[in-house]
Design goal:
This protein is α/β, with parallel strands linked by helices. The chain is built from twelve helices and twelve strands. α1 runs parallel beside α2, α4 packs across α5 and α11 crosses α12.
């Protein structure tokens, strides 16, 4: 996959593009970063790992909020809105899960909160042991940070074992393809943090949802919204630059500010992170109902 991403990146740059929307996934973004730098072309990725920021690559832009913002908002919401004093975390043992777990753990340490965590592996099918430990730990809210299949299993087993505390999840729980994997009763009342919630009321969201559903006949979801926003940002940069020269377009992307897109407001910072806010939603009858947007400096 990473080799193919590099091949595609080089092919696009050889075609003389002004900039590239993509690649998807953090591993692909990190794979093409050297090619982007040597080719002098801006890439707008939806990868969210903090390691992208650490690359310090002037040609790699992140068109979604990074994972540390999602995790910080999840923990903040659990404490400030759900009155949690002891936060539990179910997390995948991979980079995606452990990165969020560490952010939440540090948040708890900084705020004098108790913290308990239970890890699992991708493709695990039974979380009974972790759930029973969490139930006996006295946690009064739990945050789940894992991938789609494991999330659906968590939902079923949390209901079966009656964990009985508020649940806050990573973005997957707000996405139609994940919601469809779950029984409505299992996720009723759960919260999700995401950079796109289709029921949000911001004009950039409502306009996108209306046009997407009219054109494609299906529900708008996070990835379509994220890369639509990236395309809007790239076109805006070309227009402001007054040219399709890749160097000028890169500079215009770096100077983007207050551009409303479906995943928030794009204002590029010194690390080329473009989005700095996250939406919070609650599941009601399998519909993610928008609550609010929270910005993180």
């Amino acid at each position: 996959l990473q080799d193919m991403a590099v091949t595609c990146a080089n092919k696009l740059m050889s075609d003389g593009v002004a900039g590239v929307v993509g690649p998807h996934r953090s591993t692909n973004a990190m794979a093409i970063e050297a090619a982007a730098k040597s080719g002098g072309v801006a890439f707008l990725t939806g990868g969210t790992t903090p390691k992208i920021t650490e690359l310090d690559n002037p040609y790699l832009f992140r068109a979604r909020a990074p994972d540390e913002i999602f995790a910080q908002v999840a923990a903040t919401y659990a404490v400030e809105k759900l009155n949690a004093t002891k936060i539990g975390v179910f997390y995948n043992n991979d980079e995606f899960g452990t990165g969020a777990m560490e952010v939440i753990q540090q948040f708890c340490a900084d705020n004098g909160l108790e913290f308990v965590a239970e890890g699992h592996n991708t493709n695990d099918k039974d979380f009974t042991g972790q759930l029973m430990k969490m139930k006996s730990s006295g946690a009064d809210a739990v945050i789940i940070w894992t991938h789609d299949p494991e999330l659906a299993i968590h939902a079923r087993q949390i209901a079966e074992l009656n964990l009985g505390i508020p649940v806050v999840c990573s973005p997957g729980v707000t996405m139609p393809q994940v919601i469809d994997m779950c029984e409505a009763a299992h996720i009723e009342g759960w919260y999700g943090v995401s950079d796109f919630v289709s029921t949000a009321t911001q004009p950039a969201v409502t306009d996108f949802v209306e046009k997407f559903e009219a054109k494609y006949g299906g529900p708008a979801e996070l990835y379509s919204a994220a890369y639509y926003g990236a395309a809007v940002a790239l076109l805006d940069a070309i227009e402001r630059a007054g040219t399709d020269d890749p160097a000028a377009v890169r500079d215009a992307l770096a100077a983007a500010t207050d551009l409303a897109v479906p995943v928030g407001t794009i204002t590029t910072d010194a690390n080329n992170d473009m989005v700095h806010e996250v939406m919070v939603a609650q599941l009601k009858d399998k519909v993610p109902v928008y609550i609010e947007s929270i910005s993180v400096d």
